[in-house]
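Encode chain A's predicted structure.
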Amino acid sequence: MDLDNIKYNIGRFLLPALFLVAGIYLMVVATSTVKVTLHNGKIGEVTQSPVFLYASLVFIIGSVVWILYISGLIKKMIGLGLMVVMLGLGVYVLYYNYKTVNRHVADKKAYERQDLEIRQRMSDIKLAQQAYKEVNGFYTNSTDDLVDFVKNGKKLVIKKSGAVPERKITPEERDYLYNDDRPIDFLMTEQEAALLAVSPLAPADLAEFIRDTSFVPVMEAVFMNDIYLEKRDKMGVMPFIVDSLTFVPFTTTLVRMDTSHKITNEIRVPTLEFEMVHPRDTSMVYTVGDTTANHLRESWIEG
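Encoded structure for chain A:
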């Protein structure tokens, strides 16, 4: 009979005891710190959300009330009342925790989205600056000048189509090109193919061969070519807007841009550095280039 009583009491107190253990565990978690890798790559210590502490208190107080009620140390109505209150608090904590988790997930997605757009914007500025230097011989430290250049500037583009035939030139083609009787010992060169493709001879195997240079609007040459558009489409970033080159994505914060030069072997070499800061994390700084060195490396790419 005593064994039956023991089993009976264990059954009565098992569930509230488990709730008490769960509450103590949640309190330990709530008061401890965890080392995590932050967005900027540094290691930092973070604490759990206060929700964990609230949840632990609800579990501990609720389980104590439950045990007292089962033990008959508090009246039935008071016990039931306290249990209802604790149940209501438990539901509220669970709902609050659900909202907190959803908000955290949304914030994380927003951070990653801004990170992606910032990197793409930096890459766009880099492309525009490279085209600007190609035309002018130096970089610009003015985003207004850079935007105007992309909108209205032109750059030299070499159009290449077709391959050089793997054959020697014919005697007739030699006469046209050189007007002499030099021996034909080697395969046709690219320069010979370019001249013959636009000649009156017009060889059939050079019908699709094109080597041409022309000035093309910067917008078309740099930001409307198939390779660039395909890359943006795969990344899933926003459509390219020229005027956006001035700002950090999703903000009205201006891009910080600086130019200088360095002397290498008595040659003046232009240098460039520009920077953006993540609007949700000021410790996350993105840079391209260096005013003291001749490179345009991205800070977020190792090596």
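Strands lie at 33-37, 43-47, 154-161, 210-217, 256-264, 267-278, 281-289.
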